[in-house]
Amino acid sequence: MSNETNQVDRGSEKKTLVLAVIAGICGDAMLSWLTMSDVSFSIFPLIALVLAVQALYQEYLSKPVSEDIPLVGLACFFVGAFGHSAFIKAQYPEAGSNMFAIFVTLGLLAWIGKKVGFMERKAQTD
């Protein structure tokens, strides 16, 4: 029984982290539109940002949050924001270098992978 509830909690945590990445991407898209003249306005990042934040809030209200998820969720938000920033700067090279954004994104992804457990070796069962 506890294994089933653990699976439900793990799925809820993944949903929270994906929503945090989406919120980061949309937030940086809105910021890019405000600060860069080359980026044109689109209503879709605003709609997606509102929906992602609303879903995050509903998830927070409905399910208990484990100890590490708020910090990992914040890191996922920054992964989305810095990843989108690197993408935009690759599209528009005159906007500046994307090296810092790529390094921050990769560093945060490595830290998130360690925290979530992707970098652990699985015990071999014989």
UniProtKB/TrEMBL annotation:
* Keyword terms, alphabetized: Membrane, Transmembrane, Transmembrane helix
Give the transmembrane region(s): 39-57, 69-89, 95-112
Task: Report the superkingdom from the record.
Answer: Bacteria
Q: Where is the signal peptide?
A: none
Q: List the Pfam families hit by this protein, alphabetically.
A: DUF1422 (PF07226)
Query: What is the name of the protein in this document?
Result: YijD family membrane protein
State the organism of origin.
Answer: Vibrio japonicus
